[in-house]
């Protein structure tokens, strides 16, 4: 089978989140392997860029009418003004597959042009938008009588999931980052779902970047990600209180930004808030951590968890969402309920030999994950559609 020409419409590209991280690596994979690839994305500029060979990027500027969903996430209500520019570039590129990553303005465009031009649509699920929206709406649902709050949140989840999966029913091939989400998509769409896990750059994220002194005996607890309600960051404050009650000295290193940053700063006055970091600065921050805490119940995969493991940092995650498929409980970290996070940290602080074994095991696990393997399987799945 000839290599398919792929037009990719990601929800995020330049932002700091899992979709953007995956999208940048997808484009880099196409560059490394000389594949025909067009990335249609939103950004701060409006231009067509030839990245390398047949890899091209059509970047389209969002308008001032964009709705800000988070500090680095927006939805442009008049993105349709770019219709002609996208159509012209698609006709010139002649894709065999159009791939979308969610129900954003880019996803709607991708699905529309796939239908309009008779091109097979691929759709990968990256964000549990139904769970995110339900949590973001708590400022409103919280005004309801207590007995109606859970029912209201459940209703929002069900309605949002139904709307989101309607787009995935249009796809010829669907992807998800873990087995649970694959099962959900198969049930909702009636289509076979292919796994699209995430990879990690083990040359960038490595224990060798650790800068802390060897005799620094204080346990550093790390978190990387958005500082907002859907990430369950309130648990970090609970962990801090419980560890203080146990008289266990720890320091927090928090990387990221978000609407709840002020609350975290107030409750964790001794924590280091590094803001948004990238590249080597981010890799060094990971390497300086001893234990990575990721309290989210909604993440579909958890890129940051894999980056922490690659940095030789065992992770404590919840039994919900994608991170539990990354962490090997008792070997590279712990998969526990919220009320056991502090006890997990306490156990490692008291048994430094176990902590060291987990650090080694975490790094070894991450060495087996590569982006080339991830996207190689994606292209194999494209082939199942093109062969029909």
Q: Which descriptors would you attach to this protein?
A:
Rossmann fold; single chain; 388 residues; alpha/beta; 16 strands; eight-stranded mixed beta sheet; six-stranded parallel beta sheet; 14 helices; 2 domains
Structural features, described:
43% of the residues lie in helices and 19% in strands. The chain has 388 residues and is α/β, with parallel strands linked by helices. The protein has helices at residues 18-33, 83-93, 105-117, 129-136, 138-141, 146-169, 179-189, 234-245, 261-267, 279-287, 303-310, 341-350, 352-367, 371-386; strands at 6-9, 37-43, 47-52, 55-61, 67-70, 73-75, 97-100, 121-124, 173-176, 193-195, 219-224, 250-255, 272-275, 291-294, 315-317, 333-335. It starts with 5 loop residues before the first strand and ends with a helix. It has 2 domains: 6-199 and 370-386, 3-Layer(aba) Sandwich (Rossmann fold), CATH 3.40.50.2000; 207-367, Rossmann fold (3-Layer(aba) Sandwich). Helix 4 runs antiparallel to helix 6 (146-169) and helix 11 (303-310) packs across helix 13. The chain is built from 14 helices and 16 strands. The protein has an 8-stranded mixed sheet, with helices on both faces. Strands 13-12-11-14-15-16 form a 6-stranded parallel sheet, with helices on both faces. Strands 5-6 form a two-stranded antiparallel sheet. The longest helix is centred in the middle third of the chain and has 24 residues, at 146-169. The chain is globular and about 65 Å long.
């Amino acid at each position: 089978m000839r290599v398919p020409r792929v037009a990719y419409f990601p929800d995020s590209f330049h932002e700091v989140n899992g979709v953007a991280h995956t999208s940048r690596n997808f484009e880099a994979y196409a560059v490394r392997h000389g594949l025909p690839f067009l990335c249609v994305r939103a950004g701060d500029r409006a231009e067509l860029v030839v990245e390398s060979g047949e890899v091209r990027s059509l970047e389209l500027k969002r308008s001032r009418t964009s709705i800000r969903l988070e500090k680095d996430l927006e939805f442009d209500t008049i993105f349709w003004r770019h219709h002609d520019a996208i159509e012209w570039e698609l006709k010139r590129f002649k894709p065999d597959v159009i791939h979308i990553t969610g129900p954003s303005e880019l996803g709607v465009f991708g699905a529309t042009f796939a239908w309009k031009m008779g091109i097979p649509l691929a759709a990968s699920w990256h964000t549990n938008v139904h769970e995110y929206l339900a949590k973001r709406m708590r400022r409103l649902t919280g005004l309801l009588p207590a007995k109606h709050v859970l029912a209201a949140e459940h209703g929002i989840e069900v309605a949002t999931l139904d709307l989101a999966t309607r787009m995935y029913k249009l796809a010829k091939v669907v992807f998800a980052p873990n087995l649970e989400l694959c099962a959900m998509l198969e049930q909702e769409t009636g289509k076979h779902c292919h796994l699209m896990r995430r990879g990690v750059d083990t040359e960038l994220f490595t224990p060798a970047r650790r800068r802390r002194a060897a005799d620094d005996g204080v346990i550093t607890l790390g978190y990387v990600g958005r500082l907002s309600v859907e990430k369950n960051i309130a648990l970090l404050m609970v962990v801090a209180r419980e560890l203080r009650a146990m008289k266990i000295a720890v320091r927090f290193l928090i990387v990221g930004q978000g609407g709840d940053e002020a609350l975290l700063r107030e409750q964790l006055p001794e924590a280091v808030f590094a803001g948004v970091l990238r590249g080597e600065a981010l890799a060094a921050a990971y390497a300086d951590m001893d234990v990575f805490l990721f309290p989210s119940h909604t993440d579909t995969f958890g890129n940051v968890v894999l980056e922490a493991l690659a940095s030789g940092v065992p992770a404590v995650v919840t039994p919900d969402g994608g991170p539990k498929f990354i962490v090997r409980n008792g070997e590279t970290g712990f998969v526990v309920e919220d009320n056991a996070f502090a006890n997990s940290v306490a156990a490692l602080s008291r048994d430094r030999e176990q902590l060291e074994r987990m650090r080694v095991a975490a790094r070894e696990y991450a060495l087996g994950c590569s982006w080339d393997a991830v996207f190689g399987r994606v292209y194999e799945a494209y082939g199942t559609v093109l062969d029909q």
